[in-house]
Fold this protein.
Amino acid sequence: MKVGRFSHEGALAYGVLDEEAQEWVLLKGDPMFAGYDTTGERAKITEVTLVAPVIPRSKVVGVGKNYHDHVAEMKSVTGGDAPKEPLLFLKPNTAVIGPNEPIVLPAISQRVEHEGELVAVIGKVAKNVPVEKALDYVFGYTIGNDVSARDLQVGDGQWARAKGFDTFAPLGPVIETEFDPTDAALQVRVNGEIRQDGNTGDLIFGIPQIIAHASAAFTLLPGDVIMTGTPAGVGPLVAGDTVEVEIEGLGILRNPVKAS
Ligand code: MG
C-alpha cells in the first residue's frame, strides 16, 4: 500500500493510493498516529502536489559507511574502515523537503554531494527493541537523499553541519508499507547520467540491526526516519542539476538543485 502526503485544495492531507483508479483516498489524520479512517473524499493524482511523506517528529537518523563499496571510496576522504557496529548520526527535521522541491546549495560549501538511500519510517515508539522484533516497528519505506557538504564534513570532523543544512534531506515520493528491504536495486542519476548503482541487499547492517542499535541509545518516535546509508558513486551536485534516486518498488525521488 502506498501512503502519500500532499496538498489538495489548499490543505495538507494524507492519502492511500488506489492504483487502479489513479486516485488518492483521503485519510482523516496522520496514519502513523491515527490509523486509516477515510474522509470519504478522493482526489485524482493529477490534482494533488506531493510533499514529503513524513516530517520526522524528532529526528532523522543517519547511518554512515553502511556499504563496503562506499567505505572504500570514502577512505581517502574521511578515512577509516567499515564500522564494527552501525555508525549513527542525526540530521535535523528542518532539513526535510519533498519530491520536486529544490536542494539549495549553501554558499559556504564548495562541494555538495548526493547520497541516495533506502529510508525506513518508524511506526511505533521504539526503545530497546531486539533485532528479531525490529521490523514490527517499521511503518513503511521510502527513498531519501542524504545530501552532504563534503568539504565541511571533512573540515568539521563531525557531521551535524555538513549533513544538516535546510533542504539536505529530501524524502519521498511516497511511503510503501509492503516492501522487502533486503533486495532492491538502488540507482542515482544526475541529469540522466547514472552515478550510483547498488542494491539494498549489500547493506552491511540491515534495518533490524540499525533499529536495535539506535533504539538502545535513544527513543524512536512514530514518524522518525532512518536513512540507511549509501552505496558507492557519491559525487558533486551543481546548480541547475536534477538528481533522481530510484529504488525498485518505491519509485523515483527527483529534486532540482539550485544556488542559495
Ligand atoms: Mg549517507
